[in-house]
Amino acid sequence: MSQLSETVAEKLEPAAAAELTRVLDLQARWENMRGAPGGAPGFSTPDLHGRQKAYDAFRTRLAAYTARHAAPHLPEVTLNTPERVGMWCRAARAVLRRAGQEPVEYPAHLIAKAHRLADKVAARLGKPPADREAAATTLAAAVRNLDAVVEWCDQLAGPSLKLAGAPRIAGKITPAEPRAEAA
Questions:
Q1: How far is it, in rounded angstroms, from Cα 41 to Cα 38?
Q2: What does the pLDDT read at residue 163?
Q3: Of 77, 104, 87, 85, nearest to 21 (Cα)?
Q4: Is the pLDDT higher at 122 or at 39?
């Protein structure tokens, strides 16, 4: 199985993309619950039960999805830079676009995750947050929200590193080996 990327997502069948949208939304729901509620120092038993139910729902849906489709890996690198958040949002956006012809609920948790990640980066870098489309309820609106986060990330990411002869490895540019000059 390959890593979930924009390229992989663009090759999904619409029905598979619709199912993956649901998986990603459940994953985001569970991940969005990780922080203590209201900034409180601990968790109550009902909070922990809610987290466990959210995780179980995600794992159940993921298992069902992977039983039907050759699923991309869902684990992600740490999403703490504009480049990485943008990459994740591009992949999620590609999944939503492919799912566009299928009946899919608005992925509120996925969009909340995208903005939560961007907000953390913004706070760390002292930048204003990415734009949000208020009262969004359609898949097209979800794509527009991801577009806004991707554009915001691109503006913060700065110029890309371009080295002549630098091989690309796993999405990263690495310097080429020094070459011996011909005499």
A1: 9
A2: 35
A3: 104
A4: 122
Task: Tell me how far CA of residue 142 lies from CA of 14, 71, 97, in angstroms.
Answer: 16, 22, 10
Task: Tell me the C-alpha distance between 58 and 110, whole Å.
Answer: 13
Return the DSSP state at 62: H
- Decide if 94 contacts 9 (C-beta within 8 A): yes
Task: For tokens 């699923």, name the residue.
Answer: 71
- How far apart (Å, rounded) are the C-alpha atoms in residues 158 and 27? 30
Q: How many CA atoms lie within 13 A of 53 on its CB side?
A: 6
Locate tokens 């760390």: which residue? 124
Can you read off the two tokens belonging to residue 143? 């794509």
Q: Beta partners for 168?
A: 173
Strand 168-169 to 172-173 pairing: antiparallel
Q: Is pTM, for the whole model, over 0.85? A: no
Residue 40 is predicted with a pLDDT of 62
Instruction: List pLDDT tens digits, range 1-45.
Output: 356 889 988 999 999 999 999 999 999 999 998 875 666 667 788
**Residue corresponding to tokens 């969004």:** 136
Half-sphere exposure of 64 (CA within 13 A, CB side): 12
